[in-house]
Design a protein that fits this description.
alpha/beta, Rossmann fold, nine-stranded mixed β-sheet, two-stranded antiparallel sheet, globular, binds uracil, transferase, PRTase-like, magnesium, GTP binding, Upp_B
Length: about 210
């Protein structure tokens, strides 16, 4: 698995405001969208393209366009929904599938409660949106879903990641041929005893949408 930790002063600045517990929900939502657009720029570096002939007002030239079928973007509900706008702003023609997953706060085990994905993902590039890579349980399950449906290229975009989550992903997919990439805004120190990322930003879903 390839891991890319974005290293850009704008990302560090936005992340600092995002982490601050004084930051309110509207600002938090806005910052998540902006951060995803910046991370998506890196995450789509290997997006599939083809050459096309076009004519500019001056001359003919060979340009580049995204290939069909277009990539599939999969936000993990609930918190991943806050990342969707920022992603489709960069790839407006992407298809969007949804996975609803929740982790049990005691056992930290993930389970799926909703699934709306194309049946056949053969040959598709997939981008999973999940803000917090903590234990890795949710992301591992999501990646397994996509591989089972034939996805051949998977990139996860996470705002923050914990070393434990990255290690779990690396172990889970060590012998899988499908290329898997992780693009993250920062690699934090660790998980605490409640499975929260430290220093982290708290519960991403609650900070985006309130405690419901
Ligand atoms: N999920 C969150 O929202 N925050 C964490 O710190 C870990 C998992």
């Amino acid at each position: 698995m390839k891991v890319h930790v974005a290293d850009h002063p704008l990302i560090s600045h936005k992340l600092t405001v995002l982490r601050d517990k004084q930051t309110n929900s509207p600002t938090f939502r806005q910052l998540v969208e902006e951060l995803v657009t910046l991370l998506a720029y890196e995450a789509t570096r290997e997006v599939h393209t083809r050459s096309v002939e076009i004519e500019t007002p001056v001359t003919a030239m060979l340009g580049t366009k995204l290939t069909d079928p277009k990539p599939v973007v999969v936000p993990i509900l609930r918190a991943g929904l806050g990342m969707l706008e920022g992603m489709v702003r960069l790839i407006p023609t992407a298809e969007v599938g949804f996975l609803g997953m929740v982790r049990d706060e005691k056992t930290l085990k993930a389970s799926t409660y909703a699934n709306r994905l194309p049946e056949d993902l053969s040959g598709r590039q997939c981008f999973i949106l999940d803000p917090m890579l903590a234990t890795g349980g949710t992301l591992i399950m999501a990646i397994e879903y996509l591989i089972a449906r034939g996805a051949t290229d998977i990139t996860a975009i996470c705002i923050l990641s914990a070393p434990e989550g990255i290690a779990a992903l690396e172990k889970a997919f060590a012998h899988v041929d499908v290329p898997i990439r992780l693009v993250t805004g920062a690699l934090d120190q660790k998980l605490n005893e409640h499975g929260y990322i430290v220093p982290g930003l708290g519960d991403a879903g609650d900070r985006l949408y309130g405690v419901v």
